[in-house]
Protein 1
Amino acid sequence: MTWLFLPILIVAAVAAYLGGRGLARRRAAGARAHSRPGQHGAYALIWTAAPALLVLFLSAVFAPTIEHQLMAAGSPDAVQSLEPFRRQAFQADAAAVGAGRPAAQIWPAPYAELLPAEGRRAARIHLMLSLGGWVAALLAGALGGLFVFSRIRPDLRARNRVEGWIVGALFACSAVAVLTTIGIVASLVFDSSRFFASVPITEFLFGTQWSPQTAIRADQVGSSGAFGALPLFTGTFLIMLIAMAVAAPVGLFSAIYLSEYAGPVFRATVKPILEILAGVPTVVYGFFAALTVGPALRGFFNGVGALLVGGPLDPVGQYLMLVQNQMALVAGGVMGIMLIPFVSSLSDDIINAVPQSLRDGSYAMGATKSETVSRVLLPAALPGVAGAMLLAMSRAIGETMIVTMAAGLAARLTLNPLDTVTTVTVQIVTLLTGDQEFDSPKTLAAFGLGLTLFLVTLLLNIVAQRIVITYRQQYD
Amino acid sequence: MTEATNGHDRTRAERLRSGLKRRYAKERRFRAYGLLAIAVAVGFLVLLLGRIVEQGHTAFYTHSVTVPVYMDPARIDRGYPQGTNFEQLVAEQQLRRLGIADDATGSKATAMRGLFSSELKFVAAGRIARQPGLVGQTVTLAAPLSDDADLYFKGKITRATPAEQRRLSNEQIAWLDRMRDEGQVSAHFNAGLFTRGDSTEPELAGVLGAVIGSALMLLVTALIAIPLGVGAALYLEEFAPRNRLTDLIEVNINNLAAVPSIIYGLLGLALFINWMHLPRASPLVGGLVLALMALPTIIIATRSSLKAVPPSIREAALAMGASKTQTVFQHTLPLAMPGVMTGAIISMAHALGETAPLLLIGMISFVPGLPHSLVEPTGALPSLVYIWENASERAFHERTAAAILVLLAFMIVMNAAAIVLRRRFERRW
């Protein structure tokens, strides 16, 4: 409904442009003005549209919050007495009913009767706020327009001002990147500080018990929950190690072959194929790990176990018979495949950056290609390759879908690749999916884990980028 | 030359010759490792795609039974045909046709009913609603089969499995065999997969809802991320003074590009859902999160294509009296546009496949039907893959692989578009 205001705003902006242009022509009256009439028109348009858009943006950002608080403030006592999670669901349903959509759930007696009235109230508040936003936007636009029309004169440097606005807008675009970082840090720090208020940070970092269930009743067994994240860290580390054990040699050797041995045709066919591997979504790798690699490896180990049972290695055989689909090896191995193109393309760039003179010098001394690679190129490229590996590690630590679909949920303190382990990202997903109550330590723990993950990957990235940049400069 | 040095030379030459053999062997081994590494990578790709095609291709066809149905006037309410229990009606008639007597509790009819999809009801009711005159006559219906019966005809449920471990009894399998022998069963293209939303019944589940959801989400992402990303790149590449602030922004963008996607999900949850109270699981929130994620990639791609425009173009424009802004918007940016669009399309394709942040903003719950707006809960293709992969019905496995194939098809189309754009319009200076 209120979108009807949008054409009004557009018409007003166009009118401002035409008006500004005409006014500039008339006021210049044949004399030579500093800027062309069209630039005056653009200046008028900016001064009309920018204030209106600013007000609209602010209302889009803040209106839902205000709406929510108005709804909460005036709601009947029966709704006020609901638990926070149920209250939010009720308000969401009231908003849906108010907008003419069906409610998401069927409410029991006192709430079912309240729903239509609350729905009407929600619709009224919504209409009031959005109408208010649009009227304020139009007013702001009108004020801006009045201001600018009083300023249009032949000696107004309209072009420079318009260009100033454009550069300002472009700067605002690049500031969004900084705002995103600030948003990430602020949201993670804010919610994890609430988590660390209830769970001491030392217990979180060094505790070995992870069972984040929160009980429904306070007197239930295990109601306290345990938030020792050490098993998650070791699990993440283990899967990262397995992934790197696959990705590092395969990626590095394929990069060496592509840059030193392969002919142009081979290179031109293989590189795009590796890029396809990089473009496959991670959820597809997860599916592959869960339904193909997992059962295959399990079958293999169970078979080996069956052979060993009864022999001298009986305990090992018994253990192998019980290996499950969700072992760390499956998730780590598939993650390694995912990282191959990443490692390979980074290493390829780095090896290519080694100056040709080093290769020529080595060949002139009679070295073979492999000797040149392993004794000259790799030592020279070592810092760069190390940086590439760190970047790949940071990827492996932050990767979510493969481990969510193929690793388990059991938080176990082990470095055995055949055991089921869980990772930081798996736990974030598990804690935050499904019904959630936003104040329980259970959901806040996810933000604690998120903060840890963010800090670790950030550190790895910064160190790796430093290394790669200094390495590149060395040969520039 | 003395004897001694001659002898010394010979041994040295021999030593070198024997060493040479060793060194060449080592060289061949090294080369083989490189080839092996590439073979491993390519082999995994073939295995991955091959397995998905192998698992998914069967979801593209499905089976139905052509049954004559007597539209019994005693059981069909002409005013309200959709209230009729058509499944029971068809099951009883099918039993009679096969000459099987039902027991007192009607358990055989229940078993027979289990072979048909619940869609049968809508097929039959739709026919009656269109032609009410059919009541009292015998109509031939193409009745869709249930997921288990369909899996039997696809060979994924076999008699070899012990009866208690499969979802079809021996009796049901015998009925299915008889129907096939009588030529009632036909295989056809599974159009429903592309024309329906999600459903709890595998044979009724389709990807269209998720495709529309993903499209709406990408629309939001493109509308936000491309203008913002291009603007930011223009500022950093063309206008920014070299100072500490712009250095900070640059470092920041490089780091944002490497932040794990799940962190963006946490940001979206905290900022858009818990603070701004935007609707959970809506394409709007999904698009906003993906836009923030795609932003650094678009900025980096745009900057590199702006860098590729030679400075002589800028200098010529400036020399003709154009202002800095005019130079950038009338000369540099249009020349860089193919590269910008290529980068934008590739980052959109990447955003299409991103799953983890969507799970955190609630796109993990079951959403039936097709999405209507930007602010209602919807599904998305990658999260549909995740949801179906977790479903317990076996028939969802092949559909998961089919959904992956649809997702990959979209990504291939987008990447191909980017390649064509680059080939057609990119200029080398």
Protein 2
Amino acid sequence: MADQLLDVKGLNCPLPILRAKKALKDLAMGGTLEVLATDPGAVKDFEAFCRTTGNELVSSNEEGKVFSFVIKRTA
Amino acid sequence: MNKDSNTKSMSLIVTKGSLDWAYPPFILATTAAAMGLDVTMFFTFYGLTLLKKKLDMSVTTLGNPAMAMPMFGMHMGMPNLVSVIPGVDAAATAMMKNLIKKKGVASIEELRATALESDVKMIACQMTMDLFEYTLDDMIEGPVLGGAATYIENATKCDINLFI
């Protein structure tokens, strides 16, 4: 289980990224955030977001039409 | 700009003030800021109206030849000329606002507030303020006044410079 859960289902680009960024800021270093999204563009976007910001994308999954990402705050 | 460190930076020239064209600059600015970039937006000409306290943006079919709206399960083209028919642009605007809400797309007000919260630097073009007779009282709090030289100086230090 991640330390924090963020549900952005139904929201479109760039809101999943913006909300995730906000949630990550409140997390302690090393903490994890799980994001639930329905925007298919979020898959590539979270990869790019993590690469650029230096946070770790621990996992990226799809179940049904819901995408889930676990991000570890490392930056 | 924070060029001493490894911080990347982006500048955008925002020239258009319609509802559809307001999106690209605010989406890119907020996302870049979320990704750790220093962002500067320079608002000029019709883009300046995006800094008004009360936004009243609309879309027009005029000069928008590729515009097609999802309707009746298909995409309806919006011929340029229908714009002259009273009510068409108002209807297109209402339709766009409805789609924005339905598809979970952020409002411009929300993106603008997020941009300010994430320290996006906003410059209001002084010349445009004079030209269209605006004062800072008409605008939200946050933007500073500047001109072309202010923008250029900033842009020389940026990794990404966009004109929208």
